[in-house]
Amino acid sequence: MRAHLAQRHRFEHTVRVARLADTIAQAHGLDARAARTAGLLHDLARLYSTERLVQECAARGMPIDDFERANPIVLHARLGAELARELFGVEDPAVLSAIAKHTVAAADMGPLDCVVYLADGLEPGRDFPERAALAALAHRDLSAAMRATLEASMRYVQKQGLSVAPQTAEAARRFGIPQEAFHCPN
Ligand SMILES: [Fe+2]
Ligand SMILES: [Fe+2]
Question: Is residue 108 part of a domain?
């Protein structure tokens, strides 16, 4: 995995994500090994160029939606799940799903999906004021942490002048964030 990522910064991020995913999973009686595996492998395609992301997804017959077409970087999550299977022999659907949903979240998120989404956004290398409080919350209440983290992430995306992915907006709705709280382009 280290060889595949070939960048110290990204490797260290994945180790921190794996560790945080492990403790969050344990706090909720979930499979810590699956959480660590998903954490370690979640960013396999993160350093691919946008051209390569689109190309490799197309080569596998993966559909690419309008948001992904406009923001190809988010494809690293779904492509990463494919690579975890192809290169590392991961077959556990929960692990593959957590990798695939770690960036823009999804309408249907199981417990491991939430654990990895939260660990990616809240690992200690992330630098924003609510990080530590949200990481603590993630160990106590997955849904509350998802609500708060999705909200923080949508605020950030909008502050950057970017649009919220439809999958993220849908996840926000499912976790009970009122729609007025964010401007959804779709
Ligand atoms: Fe990522
Ligand atoms: Fe990541």
Answer: yes
pLDDT given at position 81: 98
Find the angle CA(99)-CA(126)-CA(128) to the nearest 5 degrees: 130
Domain count, the chain: 1
* 142 HSE (CA, 13 A, CB side): 19
pLDDT tens per residue, range 131-140: 999 999 999 9
Residue 53, token pair as written in the block: 């992301």
- For residue 184, what pLDDT is reported? 54
Ligand 2 is a single-atom ion; what residues have CB below 5 A from it? Answer: 43, 120
Question: Is the alpha carbon torsion for 119, 181, 77, 30 positive or negative?
Answer: positive
Asked, for residue 43, whether it belongs to a domain, the answer is yes
Residues of the chain under the 70 pLDDT cut: 6, 181-186
Closest to 158 (Cα-Cα) out of 131, 180, 183, 130: 183
pTM higher than the cut 0.85: yes
Check which CATH number belongs to the domain holding 68 and give it.
1.10.3210.10
Find the ligand nearest to 119 CA.
2
Which ligand number lies closest to the CA of residue 81?
1
pLDDT at 186: 45
The ligand whose atoms approach the alpha carbon of 126 most closely is 2
Q: What is the pLDDT of residue 181?
A: 65
Domain of residue 25 covers 2-129
Q: How far apart are CA 138 and CA 144, in angstroms?
A: 8
